[in-house]
Amino acid sequence: MQRQLITLTVNGERREVAVLPHHTLLEVLREDLGLTGTKHGCELGECGACTVLLDGRPALSCLTLPLAVQDCEITTIEGLERNGKLHPLQETFAELGAAQCGYCTPGIILAGVALLEEIPHPSLEQIKEALSGNLCRCTGYTAIYAAVEEAARRMTAPIPSGKGSDNDA
């Protein structure tokens, strides 16, 4: 089978890659682009381990053909870090122990990021619904939900103006 040269925008960077027509986006990300944060789970779209963001919306990369997403912005877990700083949801996952084995964590975080972009102050029920396509076999989800709630709080907290701070002296 012959490879086809396509251009994908992954984590803000345009990348040319020669793909086999039957390969999934998951295979291209992991094998051709070396982005192994996206996990290989069930290949059936049932576990959510392969979740990426396509134009900011969660998508299962194991069911997505790269040819179909050439005009999309693809975000993987590697694309959340900005200038050496983790996304607030990545920080709260680490701080609250929301990851056990960590295998499902990238997909859950990306689904959570999409939720927080759409609904800055989600209810617990909205969080549960947004993450319902992501299975975790190690946790009881309580710490995961708490991490999303804490990230939402941090992301929407007012930024101090500096007035009355110790730096004004």
From TrEMBL:
Pfam families: Fer2, Fer2_2. GO terms for molecular function: 2 iron, 2 sulfur cluster binding; metal ion binding; oxidoreductase activity. Residues 4-80 form the 2Fe-2S ferredoxin-type domain. Keywords: 2Fe-2S, Iron, Iron-sulfur, Metal-binding, Oxidoreductase. It comes from the Bacteria. CDD domains: fer2. Pathway: Alkaloid degradation; nicotine degradation. SUPFAM superfamilies: 2Fe-2S ferredoxin-like, CO dehydrogenase ISP C-domain like. This is Carbon-monoxide dehydrogenase small subunit. It comes from Thermosporothrix hazakensis.
